[in-house]
Every structure is written in C-alpha cells, then in structure tokens.
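Researcher: Structure prediction, please.
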Amino acid sequence: MGKRVPIELNGVTYPTKKAAAEAIRKILYGREKYCPLTGDDHDLLLSLLARHIDYAEKAGVGISHFEIRDNKVNGGTTTGFWVVRTDGTAVDFSYRWALESRHRTLVEDIAGAARHAIYPYLHEAKRALFAEQSNNDNLMQCEVSGRWCAFAEMHVDHAPPTIFQSVLHAWIASERLKGNEPSTDWIHQHGADGLVTEFATSAIAKSFVDFHNTLTAATRSLRLVDADRHRRLKGQHRPKVKAPLVLSSATTGVVPAINRG
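Model: Predicted structure follows.
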C-alpha cells in the first residue's frame, strides 16, 4: 500500500488526496453553475490551482474568479472548474491533475484517446440494451444495486476481470508485437488540459475499437449499472454480468452475434 501523503489547501490539511478530492467535489457538485465562486470556495480553488503543473498558463494575465461550467466531451457533458482571467478570457482545468501536480503519462493519454474512440459504440449499445431492458416507465433495473434508473443514470461498466485498463494494456501489448511502439504520434489533444484526447489516425482508432469490442464481447464483460452505485463500488468485488452489452465492429459495423442467455 502506498504511503499516504497529506495535502494542504487553503490552510486546511487533508490526510490524503482522496479526502481533498471529496472536499473539492462538494464544491463542484454543490454550487450554482456559471456564477463566480466566492469566499472559502475561491480561496480553496486558488490554492488548488497553484499546485497545477501548468499554473502560469492557466492563470494567464491574472485570476479574476472561478466558475463551474459544463464541458462537452465524447458526446456528453461533464462538470468542471474554469478560471476566468482579469482580461475576460477563461480556461478549464482538471482538479484531479492539479491534485496530482504532474503531467499525464503517455499511457494515460492513450487511455483518454481510447475512451474517446469507443464512446460512440458504447453509447449505441447502451441505447439498444436500455430499450430492451427498460419498463413502461422508461426505467431499467441495475443488476448490481437493484435500483430502477433512467437512461442518464446508467453507466457502462467494464466488469472484472476485463476492466478497461486490462483491455487497454492488452491492446498496447498486441500492438508492440506488431512492431508498433506506443508514442506521442499515436495521439493528438485539443482543449484545455488536453480535455479531448484522440487517436491521431483512424487506423489506430479502429485497431483499438475492434480489439476492445471483440474482447469484451467474448468475455461478456460490459453492462449497464447505476452510475452512483458504480462510483461507490470502485475497487470492490462486483458480481457476474447478467445482461451484457453488445458492441459493433469499427471495421465492418457488424454487431457480433452473442447469446444473451
């Protein structure tokens, strides 16, 4: 087990990064969007941003205030912090990377591109399975928590042992066997903090998508779960998948025939 490293933000010492992240998320999801954050909220975020490895770039000519805004990523919406500068310009920043106080590794960047590449296939399969499994109230029962959830409340879960990171590392290993060594040439980024990371070519994207979709189909490891329950289950044992998602092929567009029974 790694050593716990305390983090100080705005004069408060948190015993772990997790504890600090929980305090930050209370602001992120507990305050009104598109309004200046004031008082202790402002001071905490100022202290947080000071940890960011690209602080000078984020702060620019000077910080006026912070806001919570929506970010459009992979066809969906996420909530994030934005720095509004004294000249009126604004830029988003990742509180997670500010806490880490480091740049992402190449594999972490490739993971972002991989998630971006499979998003359309996951979303398509999510819609199909939800339509099949939902009731007359347009709710689907989570097989893990038992709660009946709306479409937006469901999360695509890579069930153990075929978790997303395992698939990613297996694909990278397969590319190495072909003589394709991972490099920054595999990806390109746009948006603040590299908010959107994509594969540089359609060939690389197709390679990952087909590998991912074939493997998860064979292992029947994708399912829809209660998003809130999924967050709380992170790192814990999760039961066998009952109703797996079926993904199409990036190359052929064909949905593999998988027996759901």
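Model: The domain at 7-100 is CATH 3.10.450.40 (Nuclear Transport Factor 2; Chain: A,).
Researcher: Thanks, that helps.
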